[in-house]
Amino acid sequence: MRIIQTTLYVDDQDRALEFYTEKLGFIVKADVDSDGYRWLTVVSPEDKDGVELILELDTNPVAKAFQRQMYEQEYPAIMFGVENVQEEYERLSKDGVRFVQEPLNIDVATIASFADTVGNIIQIVEQDNKFRVR
Q1: Domain range 5-131, its CATH number among 3.40.50.720, 3.10.180.10, 3.40.630.30, 3.10.20.70
Q2: What is the pLDDT of residue 99?
Q3: pTM > 0.85: yes or no
Q4: Which of 11, 84, 5 shows the shortest CA–CA distance to 50?
C-alpha cells in the first residue's frame, strides 16, 4: 500500500496553481473541469509519478472552518521535505513568500513555516540523516 494523493484545501484554485507552480516549483499533473468542479493536482518535478497534491477548493463548510482555524493557529496543513531549509527560506523570502516561522533546528530536523496565499501554513523540513526512513 502506498499514498498516491493527498488533499490541501485552498480558497482560490487559480492563485493556488500560481503559487505552487511559480513559487514552489511543483508541476501540474491534472487540471480538469467537469460540471463546475475542477480537479487540480500538482506533483514534485523530482517525482512526477509520486504523490499528487490535490488543490481542492474549500467549498465544504467543515473543511473551510478547519482550514481557517489551522491557519489562525499557524499550524501547518502539510509538510514538504527539502534538502536545505536555510537555502529554501532565503530563496522563497526573496521571492516574496511570507514566513511565519524562520528556520529552527529541533534536533531531528530543521523546520520553517510560511503562508501559501490561499489559506494554509506550509512547513518545510530538512530531516537529520540519522532519522530518515528509507
Answers
A1: 3.10.180.10
A2: 98
A3: yes
A4: 5
